Amino acid sequence: MRYIISFLLASTALPALAEVPRVVTDVPPVHAIAAQVMGDLGQPELLLDRGANAHSYQMRPSQAASLADAGLVIWIGPELTPWMERALNGLSPDVPRLALLASEGTFRQNYGETGGHDHAHEAEGHDHGHAEEKAAGKHEGHDHAEHDHDHAQEAKAEDHGHDHDHAGHDHAEHDHAGHDHAGHDHADHGDHAHSGLDPHAWLDPANAKVWVGAIAAELARLDPENAATYQANAAAAQARIDALDAELSALLTPVAGQPFVVYHDAYGYFASHYGLNVAGTVALGDASSPGAARLRELSQTVAAEDGLCLFPEAQHDPALVVQMADGTTARIGAALDPEGSTIEPGPDAYDALMRALATNIVACLEG
Description:
Shape: globular
Number of helices: 14
CATH topology of the largest domain: Rossmann fold
CATH superfamily of the largest domain: Nitrogenase molybdenum iron protein domain
Mean pLDDT: 78
């Protein structure tokens, strides 16, 4: 009996183990890299339904409730998912959130900034040691209540020699944690989607590496007892991304510079990183329906190029692409899926998304 009592007393003296944060993510590529960082410790939740459009999604009440119970919300930012911003505005400010596009070290570019030089190599040369620094937990001295705002200012200051004032859309003024958006209503996202900041930044693998580090650092802050596991998982994930990048570089180098047309303006980071030539897009960056003038201009481009590849997109009706190719020498490639919304969610989804983009583009351009 004496031993039982002693054991019970010793047990009550032990500190309570911190729970692994319940992580909620917005889109498949974010879910995938978060899953790699969490590993066996937990499974992040994905809000975007299979096959849904990230730009115009509407959450179900059950998903909104799930978001309110999150221990950490990881998302790209309001530039991609304005519906998510509206939901976050209604949450308690105590709910931790991480806007990846505003994370320190992220390479960012405007819509239309593609080709001509390799942005990713500039980004790597600039300071992608941030990823490893974050993974090692060296993320001290900043207030996570203003986490996204602080990083937006830092990232803007480190903007790789580019002018990212985004036609008056100054992201240094965005308090992504406090949601004071300086009067800018992201419900009007489509009005600047053709000229502002391109949020499809996961298509640059250097950014994916940075985000792995940012996620690991935030999880380690919230769950310090598992910090070493998050750091080890992050290092493995970054090595995995490096291997994927090398594989895709070898695959895409033979078709670098060959023009092709995509459905919506989502491929700028991918094209910049791998030296690809996006000659035109059917729709703007928010995938809204194109106007007649835009379609006429693009039709002229398609007719003028011999054997141009046109790529429909998984979430959109291919009718416009088919119509544009009709009566020309253009070829229609496989439907692309830049958001990975048709891919099985999980830690392998990022690799699958990037590999599918590369192989489908190469198949048409070399066909």
